[in-house]
From TrEMBL, chain A:
Family membership noted in the UniProt record: Belongs to the binding-protein-dependent transport system permease family.
GN (gene name): ugpA
Residue ranges annotated for the ABC transmembrane type-1 domain, each copy included: 94-306
Annotated organism of origin: Secundilactobacillus silagincola
Keyword terms, alphabetized: Cell membrane, Membrane, Transmembrane, Transmembrane helix, Transport
Biological process, per Gene Ontology: transmembrane transport
Name recorded for this polypeptide: Glycerol-3-phosphate ABC transporter permease protein
Record has Membrane as a keyword: yes
Lineage, highest ranks first: Bacteria, Bacillati, Bacillota, Bacilli, Lactobacillales
UniProtKB/TrEMBL annotation, chain B:
Pfam name, any one: SBP_bac_8
Record-linked SUPFAM superfamilies: Periplasmic binding protein-like II
Keyword Transport listed: yes
Signal peptide residue numbers: 1-25
Taxonomic source organism: Secundilactobacillus silagincola
Descriptive protein name: Glycerol-3-phosphate ABC transporter substrate-binding protein
Compartments where located: Cell envelope
Main location: other
Similarity-based family: Belongs to the bacterial solute-binding protein 1 family.
Key words of the record: Signal, Transport
Annotated GO CC locations: cell envelope
Organism ancestry: Bacteria, Bacillati, Bacillota, Bacilli, Lactobacillales
Length: 316, 445
């Protein structure tokens, strides 16, 4: 619209001639701006107070050492970042987190899918199993942690008793650095399964029966039906579940705090738990802020990659 | 219309009813000074604190103490620091042992010594080891309150059944090794001999009991620590002791944190574990959980070296300096009340924390407990027989929690086979770096 405005190149005072036109556009603009302000204002205000300001403050704190009241006291530039990446404990946390996140997402989706397919069968009493499969949704983290803690107890736990009865080597699930992460992964997958199952099951139920009837008539086997018809059609749901599980796994805190407190030997000290430890136990807000910034960057990059890579293959 | 009228009359009636009530409450509040008390106790501890406040309020008419639960120790420290100087801050608060140096340097409290001197209070009645933890340069900073000591528990009935001689009340590492080995052998491996939780607090006690300072300047008692030691003869001896038992197959590792504690207690109560070291605060839970006779000894010490004694754990009571004089005085009256011989005896019987008033031991409620369970007396005896010095009075340093995390990690590494020297050296370096940063950030010279 601005490009179509009449221009007078001969005029010594171009502003004078175009003034009325500009005025009307300015009025239009300010009216638009008013609407923008009215509609965006409240959410912007809330977001800036509770999201943007804390983010900026975190970035700011990540460049400082903090005193015993948590205030920024000595500017250290990027030293906090350098010390993080030179700290073998932090690097092993990073590795453990990646392993945990990948294992949890992959296992959750595969197992959830298996249960969802199984629950599709029209069998007597299948409703009972559908309820059971989705039941972990209703279990809180603390209850799950207590339940699994007892199962993993090396003296009186179920696993210990089974391995004793079968004369298998006894595994000290939560105190052995080689098994602790596995134990936490198993628990998390079990926790996640209810939600994943429900979403995937819902998606499968909504697929039109006619497609499968046509496939039957054409003599297509069940396996091929699943991979060629069901899977592509529920891919948006699968993508959604993948992202949610992945981000959830990055944010895992409760189970770690209740089951291993980050040990043994930092084997389960995932990034979020480390942030908590450094901020609220060690009172080292500067370092904790640095770790938060790094964690945010990692989640952002991975989500971006997911959208780029998987977004193309998803049929909406 | 009739309906709205009715409602109007109803509202007016309710208002008339409520108004005098409000006036009553106000006059009651105005005549008493309000003393807000922040604490972090759950379960029986919380119930007993409520009871103390009730009794105290009934015993006088000047002050009204209001106990308020503030979450766990770590959360409470942050809340105390961040509400200080506002109307939301408490008049008197409970804060954990390791926060002592931080709160002291943050200058949020009126030193307890001030009230002790003004009131000519006989502080000698209170346990000197517990007092030493919360004082600096012979001046009481805060009042020791819920106090525990690390001890060693064993299943006395199990030992009798297996025909094993019980360990002495003041055992050395090799005394315990002998018993642990016998338990494993005579039960044919069905019962594990021993565990020591991966826990920084227990690690510190190995040092205290070996008369070693963790931080320089005598554990921070003569100046702000600038250097720390975790790799010492004392810690090496303790870790060698654990490793020896691991190699022999008599030791079981339950890991770290509250899960480790609940697992070791579950195993102990089920008769699958013979011996473990832990806080004395677990006594009531252990006594309630099993019919087996509970054995308790002092915290074990290095062979060929007498015990120096262990430090206390738990928390103390502080009086905020941001409240008017009258409120602070009320807080002090309440502190005095909970430290009486009777209240302290009641506290120990209800919670398992140790009574700190010397006269508490003869109170009927404790006499009854000791008669029923003679071993319940051992932690109090350990506390009473320790001579306080700077090595067994806790580490007066900011960042003790960091030290505990690092020590805990080192223990986990050692239990799983890492070289003792190497693991301890890494932890020591980590802590020294952190101490340097803390001192720099707080402008300590």
């Amino acid at each position: 619209m601005l490009q179509s405005l009449p221009r007078n190149s001969n005029s010594k005072d171009p502003g004078a001639q175009s003034a009325p036109v500009r005025l009307s556009t300015t009025a239009q603009w300010s009216k638009d701006n008013l609407y923008v302000a009215i509609f965006l204002g409240p959410s912007l205000l809330i977001l800036s107070v509770f999201v943007f300001w804390p983010m900026i403050k975190t970035l700011y704190l990540s460049l400082f050492l903090t005193d015993n009241l948590g205030h920024a006291s000595v500017f250290v530039g990027l030293n906090n970042y350098m010390s993080l990446f030179n700290n073998p404990a932090y690097l092993s946390s990073l590795g453990a987190t990646l392993m945990y996140v990948i294992a949890v997402s992959v296992l959750t989706i595969i197992l959830g899918m298996l249960l969802a397919v199984a629950a599709q069968q029209r069998l007597r009493g299948i409703r009972f199993f559908r309820t059971i499969f989705s039941s972990t949704m209703g279990i809180s983290v603390s209850v799950a942690a207590i339940f699994w803690l007892f199962a993993f107890n090396p003296s009186v736990g179920v696993f210990a008793q089974i391995s004793q009865a079968l004369h298998l080597p006894e595994i000290n699930w939560l105190a052995d650095p080689h098994f602790a992460l596995l134990a936490v992964i198993m628990t998390t997958v079990w926790m996640n399964l209810g939600f994943t199952f429900l979403i995937l099951f819902g998606a499968l139920q909504q697929l039109p029966a006619s497609l499968f009837e046509a496939a039957e008539i054409a003599g297509v086997g069940k396996t091929t039906q699943f991979f060629k018809i069901s899977l592509p059609l529920i891919s948006p749901t699968l993508f959604f579940v993948l992202i949610v599980t992945l981000i959830d796994a990055f944010k895992s805190f409760g189970l770690i705090d209740l089951m291993t407190v980050g040990g043994p030997n930092n084997a389960t000290n995932l990034l979020v738990y480390r942030v908590y430890q450094d901020a609220f136990l060690n009172g080292n807000y500067g370092l904790a802020s640095t770790e938060s910034v790094v964690l945010t960057a990692i989640i952002a990059v991975i989500t971006l990659i997911q959208f780029k890579l998987l977004g193309k293959r998803v049929n909406y | 219309m009739a309906f709205t009228h009715k409602r109007w009359w109803f509202t007016l009636g309710m208002l008339l009813l409520i108004l005098p009530l409000g006036a009553c409450a106000r006059s009651e509040a105005a005549s008493r000074t309000r003393v807000v008390f922040w604490h972090e106790m759950t379960g029986p501890g919380q119930e007993q604190l409520k009871q103390f406040a009730k009794e105290f309020n009934a015993s006088q008419s000047k002050y009204r103490v209001e106990p308020q639960f503030e979450g766990n120790y770590n959360e409470a420290v942050q809340k105390i620091l961040h509400t200080h100087g506002t109307s939301a801050s408490p008049a008197v608060f409970q804060s954990m042992d390791v926060s002592t140096s931080q709160l002291y340097h943050a200058k949020v409290a009126t030193p307890m010594q001030h009230f002790i001197d003004a009131d000519h209070y006989d502080i000698n009645k209170i346990s000197p080891v517990a007092r030493a933890f919360y004082s600096q340069k012979d001046s009481q900073i805060s009042m020791p309150f819920n106090t525990s000591q690390p001890v060693l528990y064993y299943n006395a009935s199990l030992l009798k059944r297996l025909g094993i001689k019980a360990p002495p009340v003041d055992p050395s590492y090799s005394d315990i090794t002998r018993v642990a080995k016998a338990i494993s052998a005579k039960s044919h491996g069905k019962v594990k001999g021993l565990t020591v939780e991966e826990y920084g607090w227990l690690f510190e006690q190995f040092m205290a009991n070996s008369n070693e300072h963790l931080a320089n300047h005598e554990d921070g008692r003569t100046g702000i620590p600038t250097k720390v030691h975790l790799n010492t003869p004392g810690t090496q001896a303790a870790m060698k002791w654990v490793r020896e038992n691991i190699k022999a197959g008599d030791f079981i590792d339950y890991g770290a944190g509250s899960q480790a504690e609940s697992n070791e207690i579950a195993a102990f109560l089920a008769g699958k574990l013979g011996i473990f070291t832990q806080s004395s605060a677990y006594i009531s839970q252990l006594l309630a959980g099993t019919k087996d006779e509970l054995g308790i000894t002092y915290y074990p010490h290095q062979d060929g070296k007498p015990r120096n004694g262990v430090a206390v754990g738990g928390a103390s009571l502080w009086i905020s300096n941001d409240k008017p004089k009258a409120v602070q005085q009320g807080a002090w009256e309440f502190v005095k009340y909970v430290m009486t011989a009777k209240a302290q005896a009641q506290w120990q019987a209800a919670t398992g924390y140790l009574a700190l008033n010397k006269d508490s031991q003869t109170q009927p409620i404790l006499q009854k407990l000791y008669k029923q369970h003679p071993s319940a007396q051992v932690p109090s005896q350990q506390l009473a027989t320790i001579k306080a010095n700077t090595a067994n009075s806790g580490v007066f340093m900011e960042g003790v929690i960091q030290e505990r995390n690092l020590a805990q990690t080192a223990m986990a590494q050692i239990y799983n086979g890492t070289d003792i020297n190497k693991a301890l050296a890494v932890a020591e370096k980590g802590l020294n770096d952190s101490v340097a940063n803390t001192n720099r950030a707080n402008h300590y010279k």
